[in-house]
User: Fold these one by one.
Assistant:
Number 1:
Amino acid sequence: MLAYALATGIIFGLYFALVGVGMNLVFGVMRIVNLAHGDFIMLGALGAFWLFRGLGLPPSAVVAISFAVFFLLGLPLYYLLVPRLFRAAEPEMLSLILFFGLSQVIEAAVAMLFGNAERSIPSRLLGGGPVPLLGQTVPFAWAYAAGISLLMLAGVYLYLYQSRIGRQTRAIMAQREEALAIGVDIHRICAIAFGVGAGLAAVAGVFAPFMLGSFTPSIGIPLDLTSFAVIVIGSLGNPLGTLLGGMIFGVSLMLMRTYLSSFADLLPNLVLIGVLLVRPTGLLGRAVRHA
Amino acid sequence: MRSGFLRDMALVVAPLLVLFAVLPSVYDNGLLLLNFVVFLVLAQGLNLSYGFSGYLPFGYVGFFGAGAYGFAMLVTLAAVPPVLAVAGGGAAALLVGLLLAPLLRLQGAYFGLASLAASEALLHLIANPNLQDVTGGPYGVKLTIPYAPRLTYGLALGILTFTMALVAWLRHSRFGLQLKAARDNPIAASMAGIDIVRGRLAVWLASALVAGLIGAVFAWQASTFFPEAVFDIGFSIFAIVFTLFGGAGTLAGPVLGVLLLYGLYNAIGVSAPQYFQLTYGLLIMALVLFFPDGLAAIPRAWARRGRLADG
């Protein structure tokens, strides 16, 4: 039972890392908290719902289409919102409010257009049967989602560490002013990072109906809290720390569900507060605090 | 300092109190009026923390819920007289505020979301089925004390007066000025000999206290409630949006925010929640993008523009 709980914890940990990584990338590069991230995930789930059930596309096509569409939607959204935000005195605090507003708009619009119903996707649409694991089985959808999550995280690594744009992105993360001074086109690089963040959220959304069972227009804020817990444990602003955060979160969630299920809801909150108090910059963070 | 404080009290606090004292005799929806006062207190209480120390607690509702549960448990388990139990609710919130004081080491978004996590943790603790004998667990609280709408409304107005007097005092006192200095530039302020930690802790606890007091009054008025109802993150969100909409750090701003937006909410939010949510979201976005300092800053911005045009 322990080994099975650990194994499913790792599967869910990989998925939670994917849920959080987009928000973390946006925070790391722009120092803004995208509270509409959870709603991007919800929209991704809605899109997948139509692509799977309406058009009957194979899962790999659904993932690719979702990423591309949300990447392209993220670019204009960045130019619409973020440059204006940076003219204010406290962009970080105001971003919480601005993106909360966006999240409300998305949630209301989806509820008005498509209704408040709870939706799910039958997991047979992903194909494959139950996958044996340590004498028990896990649904094929879980294994598939964990695989895609790992692939997407590897993609984020290649983007950040093996490409020219990624080098410029990391320059902005380290020192925005100096990146500007050496001629980095800040808005272009930030817009790309914002688009990638939206694309990653959409891919997480594709698997949300399978991993969470179902989805409604109002899952955005709870997903934001999960993402935030995951990325703070790893370390805010360090996209690869998200993988560690997701693992810790997933494994402890599964252990709690197995052994102490009535307290399982408490866990993400307690882990978040605990990590913040012991290491305010997250487990992989560098000390950057002032005063 | 004294003249500015008295001017604020005379021009903003007194008219508002007269308005809310007279309203019950011409308008008979007492519950709605009490809710307006509750949100006025929460907005001004949040203003104490955000407006003067820059800490924006997304989990502000945690204090409200702690006050409601502190009140309910004192009344049901210890048979404390309700008026005293309201003070006990304030004390419960104060205690939670002290427990969470280490969070003040965090900054910006970290603090905001950590406080939200703290409030959620408190909710899950109280709503836990294992604690059903103490808190009522997921089934909530059912109070058997007499319903006293005039008394609860009077208490709520008293708490509102206290909260707004605190804000007015901070706006015009040396202590308030020190806080603002610490908010705008903590390093320079501490070099100038200001005890930043003490100041922040003081407004944090004051902000917790008023939310707990009004939470207790709310619990008395409601008499039956579920844990989710008094720990609803909607309270935090409303308080934050009302305060920022009007203008944090001002006295009249949060009042304007509550009267306009909570009015709008009651006009259309109840019958058509989705249209309200949409309008609300768009309003918040427009506010942040075009008037990041709130409504109260618009006349000032115009005045500055006028001066520039003349000069």
Number 2:
Amino acid sequence: MKSEKLKRGLLVALVWVLIVAFWEGSYRIIEWKAYVFPAPSHILDSLLNLFGMKTWFGDPVWLVDAAGHSQAFQRDPQWPLHGQDLQVTGSIWNSQLLEAVGISLFRLLIGFSISLVLGLFIGLAMFRFKFIDALLGPVFLGLQTLPSVCWVPLAVLALGINETGILFVTVMGSFFSIAITLRDGLRLTPTIYRSAGLVFGAHGIKFYTQVMLPAGLPALASSLRSGFSFAWRSLMGGELIFVLKQEGVGHLLAVGREFGDVGQVVGVMFIMVLIGMAADRFIFAPLEKKVQSRFGLGG
Amino acid sequence: MSSNLSSKPNHPSSGTRGKVEIQGVSRHYPGAEKPAMLDVNLTIEPGEFVVIVGPSGCGKSTLLSMVAGLAKPDKGQVFLDGKLIKSPGPDRAMVFQEHGLFPWLTVTQNVEFGLKMAGVPPDQRREASRKALDLVHLSEHTEKFIHQLSGGMKQRVAIARCLVMDPAVLLMDEPFAALDAQTRTMLHEQMQELYVEMKKTVIFVTHSVAEAVRLADRIIVMHANPGRVRRDFRLNLPHPRDFDASDVAYYMKTVRKEIDDEVNAHAGASRRVSEGVGSYEI
């Protein structure tokens, strides 16, 4: 069983290596326009650049004029690599990319926390009070379908181009979904827990803390999971459009586009996916799985 | 086993606790043509093992919910030891069909839940749950979570959860319906032992006549459309019963046939009526 899994994993890795090799190789042979679509080496090059390292996969990386301005972006599609390997030009730890990741994660933490508090509060209220559900349910369902970048113009006009604006976009992009997912999840919570709680003497606040809250844990876990991915997407959309002094990961994407560095564009996209996947895989999916297996659902 | 049949009194001395009176209870759902339950009257004596049997829709589970205080009659009243039942209380504990144990708690924590809600200190709770789990032969599984137990074990935990409350009445809503036949028989035997030991009023709802005959001192047969009491059988067989002993088997067979006839006759009639009118089902 385990060796079969390992075999399959190795096969998948092998096929990916082949795909990347074919991708790089065909670029070297055909010499397509590197600014339209990057080769793997460009992406790696740009990423290592963002990490404060200079590479000679392609050469020169930047053409710099006499005044010190970057003039053009060009790569030498020569194979094999030139003699030198990597050269660290700055510390990795204060590199542009890690700094941007730190800034984005900090924004995410604040934005996600706010939308979590709001979303859980309103989701619970919608579950508990029919009137609130009738009032807000359809609106939330509608707003949940609105792509989060569509909040950007409103944020710019109402709040200005600042941290508050970006926070607004992050919160708006995620909290409707958290509220709706929580409400729907709680609705699916078996009513037998309520009955059992009442029969065995859970009244008032104890009923909520000892029965409804733990009974709603699977719902809470799924709403956390989907809420996080909404918050991350919204933040990236916001950072792509907002130009602030503190440059987040989304901003690196915008910079890549402005400089025509398609390697950076795709590289940063890759980083975004990586962060989103890592959070889901190492925090939210295990959390959801743990709750579900405790409840005897799946797992 | 058969020696158990001889000397035990049919109603263990149970004191005065656990008298349930159901008086003129009706229930009518808005928009429904017929009432779901019509003028149900029933008095259950302390220490009696009463099994309510009937087809789905006869209101037997609703009746149990009313005694539990989870549902309210539209008309009529339910009393426990002379006190009107308005809400759930620690004097009534319930075993649900789908066990209703809390998956986020261990076996011990589930059993202690009612005591915890009542504010009983932890060491007393632990002692009570240990005793209750001993009674249902589960002392080796106290730290497990619910999903790690088999169906039969879950229901035994659910019973232990009731026992620690020392209720006046034990309510059981088709508790063994989802179990396989072998497990069910085992639980029927354990239930009998427990009943002899704890001397409590038990109201047990089932749709299985066989189960009713195995367990009951008294069998209430209910019919649907509208839900009402049709027959009230008394079984003078001591507990615990050896289901295979010839006299017990004969007695059970006789009573069972009588009830089956009653249920089938009515079900047939009801079906004919429903075909004619075409507006409701049994």
